[in-house]
Each structure stands twice: as C-alpha cells, then as structure tokens.
Specification:
Elements: H1 3-44, E1 46-49, E2 52-55, E3 62-71, E4 77-87, E5 97-107, H2 112-115, H3 120-124, E6 127-135, E7 142-150, E8 154-163, H4 166-177, H5 185-200, E9 203-213, H6 217-227, H7 232-245, H8 250-262, E10 265-272, H9 278-291, H10 293-299, E11 300-306
Antiparallel strand pairs: 1-3, 2-3, 3-4, 4-5, 5-6, 6-7, 7-8, 8-9, 9-10, 10-11
Helix pairs in contact: 4-5, 7-8, 9-10
C-alpha cells in the first residue's frame, strides 16, 4: 500500500469516525434538549415542539430548528421560531462566553393571547433576539448583553458590566447541578441566602442602552397613541411632564425629550467611578439624584443622546 493510499484510507476512516461520533453526539444532544423542554413544559404549562437539533463537534455549538410554542389550552402555536442557536454552553462549568440567539420569531394572530389588542404591526413583524454572557474567571468581571430587533420597527441593545461576580457564578453553577434534585426546605433557603449574598456583593461597572428606529417606529407609536385618543404632541407633552417629576440627570431627561421629538435614536451610558457594590450604590443614588448633583457626578458618569 503506497503513501497516497494510506493517506486516503486514513482520511476516509477519520471522516467515517467523525460522522459516527457526530451522529452519536447529536442523538445525545437531542435527548438532553427533549429532557430540558419537558421540564420547561411542566413549569410553564406550555407545549414545545421542534423539527431537529444538531451540534458541531468542533465548536460544541447547538442548533435547534423550527420551534413551535403552544398553549395546552389551544391547539395552535402562540409563536414560532425559525432557529435557536446556542454557543459556548458548558454543562459543568461557567463558560468564558455563552451566546443564545433566537432567529425568526413570529407571533400567531390566531392564538388567543394575540388575537385581541395586539397591533397589526407587531403581528406582522419578524423578531430576532440575541443574548450573550461573558465571564473572566481571573478578574471576576462579567458582562451581559441583549439585542432585540423587530424588523422595520425598532432595535434595542442593552449591556451591563459587573465586577466581583465570581461568587455568584460559583453559586449559580452549584444551583444548576442541583436543578434535577428534590431539595429540602433548609437546602432551598440556604441556596437562596447564598444567591442573595453573592448578588449583593456584585460591583456595578457600566451600563449601556441604545434604541434605534428601523424605519416605521414613529408611525407605529402614532398608530398606538391614536387608539388611545392621543396624538404625538400629547405624548411628548406627557413625557416631558413625567420627566420633570423624576429624579433623573439632566442629560438623560434632555435625551429622552429629544428622542420623543425625533423618534430616531436614543443612547444612554452609565459608568461607575468607584468600585462599589450594588447595595452601597443603590443607597446613595436616590439621594444624589434628588438632592446632590455633585455627589451624583462623583458616583457615576452619565452620557446620553437622543434625536
């Protein structure tokens, strides 16, 4: 057998092995997904169906296609999802980066929950949602990001960065391992206490929010207001009045007013100037916003823009 033949045979065996292992892993993944869905159905009273699932052996990314979520009380889907992608998930550890993406969500106008009072624009839109969570074990820093898009209407992006989150990750991982077990009342209370303590020790680092018109946001809002007997002018006046009663930085109030006028974009970012935990910061912010602008500037840096 010459070298070329050996290479070809080796490649063929490797390919066959990959296909075989891939088939086995996909079968295992589908069983795991089916088990998770059964738990979700038991908790929510909803029925979930999907056409297929697959996993990439190299990246461990999971793809689930053609999902239908229905109410057990009605034999029609509430909404459908073309594809669900899961990347970076690891069962027994906190992954450095985990992503969850819902592609092509569509609401069903025949479902009872959407048959009355839901705008035609919302029923006609196709939605996309993507979340990601990153965690740096060395520093304890973490970041959660969310993107939600309604085609031709609006896109929203939200990001929050936290410090000192290692303890929360450890407790969350321990809780996930206990998920399938029946816990005693004492165990549940202990777990809740650990979660609360871990959350209170989190340090706020930064937050960012953006809203962008995707083409028809102004028309949609105007249509919604008309059904309530209001005009855009009424809405803008009411928004300005409400903002005056709220303890918000002037930059934020101005940005929201500008967005109400232009219905184009709104961006907001808040950065902590000190490494304070949530509890300490939440105690100081209300007083600072209502009574002490100088203290507010010492606690957080605020940037906002609207048009």
């Amino acid at each position: 057998m010459n070298k070329t033949t050996v290479v070809l045979v080796t490649a063929a065996l490797a390919g066959a092995g990959y296909v075989g292992v891939n088939y086995y892993v996909n079968d295992q993944i589908e069983q795991a997904i089916t088990q998770k869905i059964a738990g979700f159905e038991a908790d929510t009273g909803l029925d979930v169906d999907f056409a297929s699932s697959s996993v990439d052996l190299l990246t461990r990314d999971v793809e689930i296609t053609q999902l239908q979520i229905s109410s057990l009380a009605q034999n029609v889907p509430m909404f459908t999802i073309d594809k669900l992608n899961i990347a970076g998930y690891e069962q027994n550890k906190i992954s450095p980066l985990t992503e969850l993406e819902f592609v092509g969500i569509k609401l069903n106008s025949k479902a009872d929950v959407f048959s009355q009072g839901t705008s035609p624009e919302l029923l006609a839109a196709t939605y996309h949602v993507k979340t990601s969570f990153s965690f740096d074990e060395a520093s304890g820093d973490s970041e959660f990001a969310l993107m939600a898009l309604a085609d031709e209407l609006v896109q929203g992006d939200f990001t929050i960065s936290l410090g000192n989150s290692k303890k929360l990750m450890e407790v969350s991982l321990a809780a996930s391992k206990l998920d399938s077990q029946t816990l005693s009342l004492e165990q549940e209370l202990q777990l809740q206490s650990q979660l609360m303590a871990a959350m209170q020790s989190l340090q706020f680092k930064s937050l960012a929010l953006t809203i962008n018109n995707q083409g028809k946001l102004s028309e949609f809002i105007e249509s919604e207001l008309a059904q309530q007997g209001m005009t855009l002018a009424d809405f803008r006046a009411a928004a300005a009045q409400q903002l005056q009663m709220m303890f918000l930085p002037q930059e934020v109030q101005q940005a929201i007013n500008d967005f109400a006028l232009g219905m184009n974009t709104l961006s907001l970012s808040i950065t902590s100037t000190h490494n304070q935990n949530f509890m300490a910061l939440s105690q100081q912010l209300p007083v600072a916003m209502s009574q002490d602008p100088e203290l507010l500037a010492e606690l957080i840096k605020v940037e906002a823009n609207g048009k």
